[in-house]
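Page 42, continued from yesterday. The earlier attempt failed because a stray header line got pasted into the input along with the sequence. Redoing it now with the clean sequence only.
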Amino acid sequence: MVDTPSESARESQFVSWQLGNLSTELLQHIFGYFCLHCRGALKEPHWAEPESKPEPSAHESSYLDLCHTLFQLCLVSRRLRNVAQPIMYHQFLLGYSDSKIPPKKYSRDRRLTSFIRTVSLRRDLAVLVKTVYFHHTIMFHIQLDDARSAYEHAADVMNTTLPEIWERQNADLEKRRHSQANPQREREFQADATKLWLSLTYQFLQRFLLGTNDDEDRRTLAHPRAAPSNRLQYWKIIANELLTVLIAVLPNLENLISNWESGIAGFSPATMRALGVTTLPLKRLEKMPHSMKWILPFTPGLETLTCNDLEPLSVPLQLKTLGFVVGNLRKEVLERSVAMCGDVLSVFAYEAASRHQSVDHSIGKLVQPCEVVEALGKFRATLTSFHLDLRFGTRQDMDTIMQPMPSLKEFTMLKELFITTNSVYNSNSLEEADGQSLVDLLPPGVVSLALVDPEFPSSKRLQTGLRGLADFKKRNMGQFTQLRRVRCDNKPVFEESCIKDMFSEVGIDLTYDEFPRYSWQYETKPHDLPAHMVLPVAT
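This time it went through. Structure tokens are written below.
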């Protein structure tokens, strides 16, 4: 039986009446379920990947489903709208999934520009936005005239116009060109500036900001067979401008997750200066590629930074958390980045994100465990969490060239430790007694230890190390007094109940746990290096 319009209307009125009788506090609690952040579905930090690899865009579909529900609640009554809107608009997570494939149920078209218009016109909602997540594929869902219209709304909030922004960008470029004191730098800048003025990028940006785009521009952006390089470059320009102006009009934005692929799109410092913005309220910047590094001079209060970049930091920051998610972090990049941190760093994390990256075949590119510890030496009295995930592919029958990790005894405040077993047990640590390895490694105040087993070494060495740690603790109850939990993903360790029993006797919980990440899934078949690959000899 099909409901008649009158029946549907009566049902809607009944639902509205039921919800309308609830207190505002209870409605906020209920509606909070339709927010990923409010219900705790977003991990902290946000760059931590889903615990299992989802279907394409599954996470984004979930987010958009929840947004759609909140939007429908806004249509029920003015009171429900006033409760739902602040929840719906305190985050923007379009593209939250790391998938290049948009969800089938929803379109990404015009969602970015619609959001920019809303927060530009509704400043009461703009002040509520705390988190923004950008996926680089968003730029492929931008239309030229729609983008310029949204940009005009945002510029109006900043008491300017797009032609004025263009004039200020030109003046900014000219000022910086004449500020070069070194004659050689002057010539280089002049050459670069000349190229810029003559480039496709410069000309298109001028047309976009002055509103003089022609039909050829529209065809290039809209037609799949248009010149690929021109089309991509146009998209980059528009995406850069929209991302920058959105950040500028959000006065309380604290978390920015910018999942741009390096070189695809990024942040425009010239636009930010043209808007009259000198500082941003950001506290957390995650997944920062090279194209976003220009935002750092505007973020003096930044506390958390995770980088997907291969270049060192160049701006002094008082960071509390520094992370790298990149396959081939180099020693010099790490050292120069750490040198730019202040003296309050408490959390460091590194994930060798590429599963096809190995110390063995890129010894000159991938930082060694001992080098990481050495670089962090200035934070011996402040570091509380150390996450070193060096899982990468290698042949199981080959020795590794990895250098063993030195002792962490001098890191007196270190509580949380996450390490891969290849950092401790490798061919260069054979002279050390495995039974003493963890005892010699662990900091005195460690509370939680996670041992993650890659494709090597043999699990027997880890088992010996765990037995040695439990036995040492039994004989020296005054040592490692805060250690309460040891987690491990090595199944053979738990095939012998005696190891778990040894830890239980000294009040430590030894548990099996898995630590998947986006580039390392437990159900994936282990990757082997090609048999013909010749490994370099360590010098």
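Notes: DSSP finds 19 helices and twelve strands in the chain.
Reminder to self: strip header lines before submitting.
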